[in-house]
Amino acid sequence: PGSPAGAAPGKRPRSAGPPPRRRRRLGPGRPVPFSWAIxxxxxxxxxxxxxxxxxxxxxxxxxxxxxxxxxxxxVQEGRLQENLWASTQRALAGLAFGVAIGLVxxxxxxxxxxxxxxxxxxxxxxxxxxxxxxxxxxxxxxGIGESMKIITxxxxxxxxxxxxxHNGLRTIxxxxxxxxxxxxxxxxxxxxHVVLPGALPGFLLGLRFAVxxxxxxxxxxxxxxxxxxxxxxxxxxxxxxxxxxxxxxxxVYGLLGLLSDGLVRxxxxxxxxWRRTLAD
Length: 280
Known about the structure:
Layout: H1 38-53, H2 64-77, H3 79-111, H4 113-127, H5 131-142, H6 146-170, H7 174-182, H8 187-221, H9 230-239, H10 243-271
Helix pairs in contact: 2-10, 3-4, 3-6, 3-8, 3-9, 4-6, 5-6, 6-8, 8-10, 9-10
């Protein structure tokens, strides 16, 4: 057939209608570079402006530049590194024990009805009791030394690991279990090929909460007759009214929490790279 009048040969005539609208993508959109730093940066700007204009009384909250100067002095004196190392040792010890115990309890309760009946109730009771409320009892049982501090952190860590890992185990698709039975997989093979991949997302989510719980518990226990640690440094600064040292301690705690959570999230993305989610 011939071309319409006025149209160049070999070219398709333009449509008279409006151009098609680009479909809006649902969900949170594309990842924003360094989005994790936006909130802290805005908070720092407000803090700096408030200090510079006098809106924030330096007796209540030291200016950012004063906090930086104090941190530099603490580093030069070696106090910050020494207390940071003591805090890190306590947190890592409690985290390791808590993750191991919480994981074992979750596997036993998740794969056994009898195990769930024995374990789940006490863990749920501990979940409703804050670690701060247990400190007087733990002091009576274990004294005020390092054992009490590590046990307190362990109790705060094992609950989120247990809760999320147990939930991950119980939400495994029953069709995978039926397939494993059809293939007559052994118990170790069933754990390796079905249980571990199914519980991994829940475990990693629980690990994120566990890391945060470790630092929160550490803040509490290091202010109970401690002789080292960031919490001890802050408690000593409170006695002498050194607001800038207290802010340095809070910033260190915040950075430790942010860094550890970022490491767990990185491991989560690597281990669960096969999943397509809104975070991608």
